[in-house]
Amino acid sequence: MFLGPMFLCFIVFLVFPVIGTVWWSTRSGSIFGGTQFVGLDNFLQLPGVVGAGSSIQNTLVFALLSVPLILIGALGVALILARIERGGSIYRFLVYFPVLVPGVVAALIWLFLTNVDFGLFNDVIKAFGGLPVTWLGADNALTVLAVLDVWRNVGYWAMFFVAAIIGLPAELYQAAELDGASALARFRYLTLPLLRRIIFFAVIVSTIWGLQVFDTALVLTNGGPGTATTTVIYRVWLYVFASNNKVGFASAISLVLILAILALTLIQMRLLRSRRGID
Amino acid sequence: MTQALDAPAAIGGMNPKRIAADHARVRRRRRRRNELARHCVLALVTFILVAPFYYVFLASLKNATEIFSYPPKLLPIPPYFGNYEKLLWHTGFLRWMFNTLFVAGSVTTLKIFLDSMAGYALAKIEIAGKRAIFMLMLILLMVPIGALIVPLWSLVSSLGLTNTYLALILPPLANPLGAILMRQFILGLPRDLENAARLDGLNEFAIYWRIVLPLIKPGLVVLAVIIFTDQFMSFIWPLIATTSDDLQLLTVGVAALRAHGGANYGLWSASAVMSLVPIGIFFFVLQRQFLARSLAGALKQ
Prior knowledge:
The structure holds two protein chains of two kinds. By secondary structure, chain A is mainly α. Chain A has helices at 4-24, 41-45, 52-83, 88-96, 103-114, 120-127, 141-166, 170-178, 183-194, 196-210, 215-221, 232-241, 247-275; strands at 27-30, 33-37. The longest helix of chain A has 32 residues, at 52-83. Chain B is mostly helical. Chain B contains 16 helices and no strands. In chain B, helix 9 (177-187) packs antiparallel against helix 12 (217-233). Chain B is flat. The two termini of chain B are 45 Å apart. At the A-B interface, helix 1, helix 3, helix 4, helix 5 and helix 6 of A face helix 2, helix 5, helix 6, helix 7 and helix 12 of B.
């Protein structure tokens, strides 16, 4: 009775759609009606369908660029922030603020940074006498999108790491300091090993988030130039609502994404289980 | 304090007290120097993170020609309010804002109750298959709504809910994060309280309502912040669940400003600034709970 209402929503709007994705992925046609069963054809044809391969590639490159930058940046900020004696709350407020910016708004803000004529980036470059850069050109757009994600997420993981670092046993650090271990050695041989699982958790979760990028790509670059920043979910959306017979491909590619996320989740759960029994 | 430590220095010699004081002074100086270095690095990092906001705020107070001029004016004097006037009175912005606050508020309120009840059940009540349900929730925890748009859209439209507030409110209720967090929270409560209440003849609902809920209030506030911000930022589902202008959420409306009607940087900057006002106020008031948002993940560790 207590579990009922939430469980009902969970089944209807999450479990059922996950199963529904499998069903839709075996059909061909339009979401507005008139589909037919085609078996595994969608998956077999998927590599040849316009945009499918490039969207997967873009998403992977995006995650590979953004996740390491986010986590290294966040860890660096956290190491300093955890040891600061005064004024920490101001920094925390400011570092965390970009986290609360909706993707759409973040992308609008970045339109002002990356504009060729009056963007902040080129203003800075011009002030130092450099030549303006086409930030959202085909070569740079995906990287800019990844850096935008760093800007938005570094604060989130920095706070996460700060909490973990503060929770580390202080005696170990005092002992290491008495033994004359340098700050670098303490980081290398104490902090990193102690935070190993925490960092692994962060890698998995931020990768899962990275695979879902959509709103910033839509607003900042419209998925372009060409298909340079068309990500998986972007492509799903295009297949469903911009073409009229690709709902099967949309579901097939969604299913690939869901399976990737489930695989990452299971790795994460396994790791947690190996630490201290189940949950 | 420093004077008292400096005094023995005048005496000189190998006074052990003096050596100790010297050491302490060196250490203190080094500590102060390190603290200063940390402040410098953090100030630089925060400057880089915050500068974009100032730049956009600046642009929002400029007229069309000023935005394009180089070198840029670094202070908006005299400020130009035309962008804000246009945004507030000539677009649906206020309506979008209302919709977002209404939908996010509804989802948050509903979910607080659903999740705390579910968490209570998962933590304290014997139900057949409880373990399996919990595992399923953990496994599906990270599956995003963006990967489910095809079945969700067809489900919602076959229920006849397209272009209603319900279409925006119901699907987010499925997210199991809240129930998982609340279960963890309630498992941490002392068992004695509950046993005592049971001996007093309270039924399950009274235990939940009168004992458990008040005890987990801090957790509920953090959960509310998590849900509210996630809803405030949500985009893809509101984008496809509504086609009517009257039901657009803030994120969808702002994206439409970008997509339609050509380049209008003044309007875009004003909409970016205004979109951040409500969440900025909430963050300022509930800073600690917001920062705990990051720790919700750590809680699972």
